[in-house]
Amino acid sequence: MTAVEVHTACSVYNVIVGAGLLSEIGRRVKTLIAGRRCAIVSDTTVGPVFADRVKQSLTSAGLQPIMITIPAGEKSKTLEQAGAICDQMIAAGLDRQSFVIGLGGGMIGDISGFVASIYHRGIPHVQIPTTLLAMVDSSIGGKTGVNTADGKNLIGAFHHPSLVIDDVEVLKTLPPREFNQGFAEIIKHAVIADAEMFGALKNTRARSPRRPLALQSLIKRNVEIKSKIVAKDERDQTGERPILNFGHTIGHAIERAGDYRKFLHGEAVSLGIVAACAISIKKAGLTPGQRDAIVDLLRQFNLPTQLQKDFPREKIIETLRFDKKFVGGKVRFVVTPRIGSARLATNVTMQDIREAIDEL
Q1: Rg of the chain taking only CA atoms, in angstroms
Q2: How far, in Å, are 7, 47, 50, 162, 195 from residue 93 at the CA level?
Q3: Backbone dihedral angles phi then psi of residue 164, each to the nearest 5 degrees
Q4: Strand pairing of 37-43 and 326-327?
Q5: Which residues are CB-neighbours of 238 under 8 A, at least 6 positions away?
Q6: Which end of the chain is more exposed for a tag (fewer CB within 10 A), N or C?
Q7: pLDDT (tens digit, 9 = 90+) per residue, 64-122?
Q8: The whole model's pTM is what?
Q9: Distance of alpha carbon 46 from its chain centroid, rounded?
Q10: What's the rounded Cα separation, in Å, for the pair 185 and 118?
Q11: CA atoms within 13 Å, Cβ hemisphere of 233
Q12: Is the pLDDT of residue 232 over 60?
């Protein structure tokens, strides 16, 4: 077991990484949060597998959880669903001394965190991510939110968790496609901030990435990368944190264009990374050789690097108009000049983006 301490301007919290941590949740939460009543928010895929163990740990520690289960999938990440969760919490008598536990992947972490941010104007939130992608990315940094018909995470709030528990044992249940999508965010971190990790990832397949100790080390490193960037720019104000959006501007639009059914989040980000590399060659001096190395690494983890010819590319362009990373109608696009580095570019045009999408 290992821990990474995340520092922000308004909070400090631990991300605990290890094996067999679900049984320790009650004890750990009880030492951090004064309230005894909580809502466990999960979905119809994760809840039946892990909720009983989490409830048992909580009740053994003298806590009083209620269970709230919502349909699995990105389609559930809506303002209406968040309201329905709040209604169930109100009906159960949860008050401002209560707290919320998000048990699931990134969708559950986002919506449970958003609920925690608005319920009684803000109550504590505990993240128990059950996917590799959520462990290395979405559970850290305090971004919560829901989607609208026009785009991802257009309604949300910054609300840092009180604790994040990454139990690597739960990853054994993930099917290969779900597991592999987490490597899109890991590769993104390597491209923008850690050339050494990029090199090490080339050999990860041979060392079996599902081994608990290997996963623990990899997750810890990625948590450190993201938490360091977040600490410098908690609310996307100084220009440091936006580099975490490498591959996401186009990736989010691809997700939406596919109606959140065609691609998993990490798969859409993989395609967004390929497009961002094409733009980086034009606007940031990325060499074609490094671009090819990035694409090859994505393929190594069975992540998509090309769109089908009949995919509605024009719908991707239409969706980009609502992206939060466009300020005053101007493009704020993250490029990489070389593996291990990234920056915001001011000279990327919509035509550049259109050409990169056409090349996918």
Answers
A1: 20
A2: 33, 22, 24, 22, 50
A3: -125, 130
A4: unpaired
A5: 232
A6: N
A7: 999 999 999 999 999 999 999 999 999 999 999 999 999 999 999 999 999 999 999 99
A8: 0.93
A9: 17
A10: 28
A11: 12
A12: yes
